[in-house]
Structures are given as structure tokens and as C-alpha cells.
Recover the amino acids of this structure.
């Protein structure tokens, strides 16, 4: 691909180098070789520019480098431009319309002709599988499942009864969509009586679910993951939760039932959300934090229980000095007891 073509695809401009340079792939600064395009988005990696062997580099506006032997592509966001380049060089494989002989499809299911269904997939009664869907080996769709156009369901996934998968969704290996919510009532003898879980899960368009993630159905009604939300591996979404548009939920996070996660919220790794809480739009909860209260829109919180991130950072800095403070306090107590003036 010519540098000029790459610039057009990535909405970049050529600031240095020939438009006819041949670009063959993408790679990070430390791995790039001749023919590769790389990028600089985080200033801490600037020293690697001196050693990179890349042919071209994406840079944000205003960022300068002391290299005249590397082509420069100016971009509004170098990371986004590099991502577009990767998508150009490594596109998704084209759909191969076929149904493997070992796939089991209920005669009442509606399955488009332009689908790719691999070995040992099971499609239950009254399911609907739309154009461009790719179902990998050992996927199970329970009765009444709907899968929208262009979605991919990877091997080992189970989609439980009556759940709905939107268009252009991706569900990675061994995840379960629509497993029973965790609901029990205590009997008089203090044993647990299972509450029927009669609801469903809805994934709207452009949702991606990581591997080994579980999304519980509602006891009544639905658990809904809205358009563009991205959920990492090993995440637990409890029954009746709502994840709003473009939220980002990282690995090992757990949401108790009926939580509401707002638009563009970021829950980093191992975050815990108590039940029936609301996390406002654009909020961020940092790693290993947990909240038992609602979170205001735009807030950044940390800790257990979580509170304002800046205050938490100051508290964490003070916590590291508690041993020293205790020692100084004991020394002062002895001085006061003996009637000595403080040092």
C-alpha cells in the first residue's frame, strides 16, 4: 500500500516522506521494521523513536521528532489512525456461506442462506439467524434466540432461551449470555428456594463480549447491554442490569443485580458494583475499587469504599507513612508523660 493511500484511509496528512513509499504492515515502535508503519501516542515511549526501524510513523499534531529518514503521518489522534491502519492491513476474513454437516438446526429455526455455521453448533427451536452471521464450532443457541446481521459467535458460547443478539456483535469463547440470575428466597426452615428466572438478555448493535464472561438474565424483564458497549473477559453482569452505550468494562469486574452503568463509563479491572446502584455517564472507577453508593456523572473514584480519586491518592500516600506517624506519636507521648518539651 502506498503511503498516500494509507494517509487517505486513516484521515492523516503526509508531513515528511514520499507519497510513493510502500507500506506493508503495522508494528509497535520496538518491533517495527522496513515497510512497517508505527505510532507514538504516549510520550513515555518517545525514546524508542531513535531506535525504531519503521518506514513511517503516525504522530499527533505538534509532536516533533529528530528523524529525517522516516515518513511522518500527521493525525488528529495517532492511536486511532494506527488502529485504522491495522484494520486495513488485517481485515476480518470474508464470510464463507456454509452449514457444517454436524450442525444441528431445529426445523422451526429461520436461518439465512448467507451464514457460516461450523461443526457441532446447535440452533434451537424458533431461533432466527440473520445474514452474515458466523457461528463457530460448539456454539449453542437455545430456543427463541435471535442473532442480528454480521455478528460472530465464537466456539463454546451458550446463548440461553429468548435472548437477542444485535447486529455486528462479537461474543468470544465460552461466554454465557442469559444464564439464570442469582435469586433465592429463604424458606421457613432457612433453606434456599430458587426464584424462577423468566427474563432475557438483549445485546444491542456493535456490542463485544470477552471470553468466559457471564451475563445473567432478569428474573422478569431483561438485562440490556446497549449499543457499542465493550465487555472484557471474565466479567460478571448480574440480573436486570443495564449497561448504557459505549461503556467499557474491564476484566474481573462484577456487577450485582439491577445496577445501571451509564454512557461511556469505564470500569477498570476487578471493580465491584453493589446492587441497585447507578454509575453516571462518563464516570471512571479505577482498578480494584468497589462502590456501595451511586456515582455522579464524570466522577473518577478509587478505593474500597470508593471515593474521589485525588483524595484517595492523598490518602494512599499518607497510609504508607502510618508506621512512621505511629512511631513519632509514641515518642511524643513519652515526652509529654515525662514533661519534656517537644523536640
Amino acid at each position: 500500500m502506498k503511503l498516500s493511500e494509507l494517509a487517505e484511509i486513516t484521515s492523516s496528512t503526509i508531513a515528511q516522506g514520499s507519497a510513493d513509499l510502500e507500506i506493508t504492515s503495522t508494528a509497535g515502535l520496538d518491533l517495527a521494521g522496513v515497510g512497517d508503519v508505527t505510532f507514538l501516542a504516549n510520550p513515555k515511549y518517545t525514546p524508542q523513536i531513535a531506535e525504531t526501524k519503521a518506514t513511517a510513523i503516525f504522530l499527533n499534531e505538534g509532536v516533533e521528532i529528530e528523524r529525517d529518514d522516516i515518513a511522518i503521518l500527521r493525525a488528529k489522534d495517532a492511536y486511532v489512525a494506527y488502529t485504522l491502519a491495522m484494520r486495513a492491513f488485517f481485515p476480518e476474513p470474508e464470510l464463507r456461506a456454509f452449514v457444517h454437516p454436524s450442525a444441528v438446526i431445529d426445523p422451526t429455526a429461520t436461518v439465512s442462506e448467507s451464514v457460516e455455521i461450523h461443526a457441532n453448533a446447535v440452533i434451537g427451536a424458533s431461533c432466527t439467524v440473520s445474514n452474515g452471521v458466523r457461528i463457530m464450532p460448539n456454539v449453542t443457541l437455545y430456543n427463541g434466540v435471535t442473532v442480528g446481521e454480521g455478528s460472530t459467535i465464537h466456539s463454546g458460547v451458550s446463548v440461553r432461551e429468548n435472548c437477542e443478539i444485535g447486529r455486528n456483535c462479537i461474543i468470544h469463547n465460552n461466554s454465557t449470555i442469559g444464564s439464570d440470575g442469582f435469586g433465592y428466597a429463604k424458606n421457613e426452615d432457612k433453606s434456599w428456594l430458587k426464584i424462577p428466572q423468566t427474563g432475557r438478555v438483549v445485546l444491542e448493535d456493535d456490542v463485544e463480549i470477552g471470553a468466559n464472561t457471564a451475563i445473567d438474565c432478569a428474573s422478569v424483564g431483561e438485562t440490556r447491554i446497549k449499543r457499542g458497549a465493550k465487555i472484557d473477559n471474565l466479567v460478571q453482569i448480574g440480573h436486570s442490569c443495564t449497561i448504557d452505550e459505549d461503556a467499557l468494562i474491564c476484566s474481573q469486574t462484577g456487577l450485582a443485580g439491577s445496577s445501571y452503568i451509564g454512557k461511556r463509563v469505564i470500569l477498570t479491572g476487578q471493580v465491584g458494583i453493589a446492587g441497585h446502584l447507578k454509575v453516571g455517564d462518563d464516570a471512571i472507577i479505577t482498578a480494584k475499587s468497589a462502590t456501595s453508593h451511586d456515582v455522579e456523572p464524570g466522577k473518577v473514584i478509587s478505593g474500597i469504599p470508593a471515593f474521589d480519586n485525588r483524595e484517595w491518592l492523598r490518602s494512599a500516600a499518607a497510609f504508607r507513612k502510618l508506621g512512621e506517624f505511629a512511631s513519632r506519636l509514641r515518642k511524643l507521648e513519652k515526652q509529654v508523660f515525662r514533661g519534656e518539651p517537644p523536640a
Observations:
- Residues 322-337 form the longest helix (16 residues).
- The radius of gyration is 27 Å.
